[in-house]
Write a structure and sequence with these properties.
This protein has a single domain, classed as Winged helix-like DNA-binding domain superfamily/Winged helix DNA-binding domain (Arc Repressor Mutant, subunit A). It is built from three helices and three strands. The radius of gyration is 15 Å and the shape is elongated.
Length: about 70
């Protein structure tokens, strides 16, 4: 399973901690992501990972977007 540190995801998306936290909570409630707390280099951190259900939902969503784009001239 691949994981990403919360701060890395936050920085990559260029959002605030609170924005990412709110979205992670909603995605976790839906079963799409998993988070775990740990210690990295002596400091507490949160690690995020996408679940199998999350990967499936993302793939389905991307396919729907591709279908929409295929209809654009």
């Amino acid at each position: 399973m691949s994981e990403a540190e919360f701060a890395v995801v936050r920085d990559r998306l260029a959002v605030s901690d609170s924005v990412l936290s709110k979205h992670v909570s909603a995605l976790a409630d839906a079963g799409y992501v998993r988070s775990r707390k740990g210690v990295h280099q002596g400091r507490r951190t949160t690690w995020l990972s996408v679940t199998t259900a999350g990967r499936t939902a993302l793939s389905t969503h991307a396919a729907a977007l591709r279908a929409i784009l295929d209809g654009v001239e």
